[in-house]
Write a structure and sequence with these properties.
By secondary structure, this protein is an alpha/beta fold. Helices cover 40% and strands 12% of the residues. The chain has a five-stranded mixed β-sheet with strand order 2-1-3-5-4, sandwiched between helices.
Length: 230
């Protein structure tokens, strides 16, 4: 078996600086607003010197009709590769389902929190600090023409999205498979996160995940009438 190819982080860093983002890429990569995460990433640069260990930007075309928002980078996934949902079990499942549904070209992917959180559990302050990046990502998504949908992977992402849109959770409760009409041609679809924990415990099965992703795709294609949504 061939040895895995090393990631050229210098090239990846340069590519990020040239990416089209709804904020300055330099501001994201240089962000130090969360002391706990800043110190954690500094430690990881020693423990895992060949990992990305920086805030992870969104990935995909700005014009993509489906915007997928997860919780945060995984230690051996996006925190390693610098690309959301690439390198770990969560990313494997998401990419497998997107491939099965022929939807890889339809999506842009990001996280509510851009840095790897301790114990995969960001604090409220850390989630709120990342609003300055999530909010413009969502705004530019909904500014595009045509039907647009966001797929929230988990309750934290769901609530962060609502906060970015100045919407109240009581008006849009999270539940797997929920579809929320946010405005003309704008939709929010909920799914449990495709984490290893959720799949191993049976909280989320692959057919459940496929159905949620398909619902989000249907929203972008104007097929909402078949979902029973007004």
């Amino acid at each position: 078996m061939d040895a895995p190819r090393a990631i050229d982080f210098q090239r990846r860093h340069s590519n990020v600086l040239r990416m089209t983002l709804p904020y300055r890429s330099e501001d994201l990569l240089a962000c130090r607003h969360c002391p706990r995460l800043r110190h954690y990433l500094a430690k990881l640069r020693i423990d895992y010197p060949d990992y990305w260990n920086l805030p992870v930007p969104a990935y995909g075309e700005l014009s993509a009709p489906l915007f997928i928002v997860g919780l945060a980078p995984g230690l051996h996934g996006a925190n390693k590769t610098g690309i959301p949902f690439v390198g770990d079990a969560s990313g494997d499942m998401l990419n497998r389902v997107l491939t099965q549904l022929s939807a890889l070209s339809l999506v842009r992917i990001s996280n509510a929190v851009k840095c790897l959180p301790l114990n995969n559990s960001p604090s409220s302050r850390e989630i709120n600090n990342c609003q300055k990046f999530l909010m413009p990502e969502i705004n530019v998504h909904f500014q595009q023409t045509g039907n647009r949908a966001i797929l929230a992977l988990g309750g934290v992402a769901h609530r962060a999205i609502l906060k970015a849109l100045s919407l109240k959770p009581r008006d849009h409760p999270f539940s797997h498979g929920n579809i929320h009409h946010l405005g003309q041609g704008q939709w929010l679809v909920d799914s449990y996160h495709c984490s290893r924990y959720n799949t191993q415990t049976g909280r989320l099965t692959e057919p459940m995940f496929i159905n949620a992703v398909q619902s989000a795709i249907d929203c972008t294609r104007g097929k909402v009438e078949c979902l029973g949504i007004e």
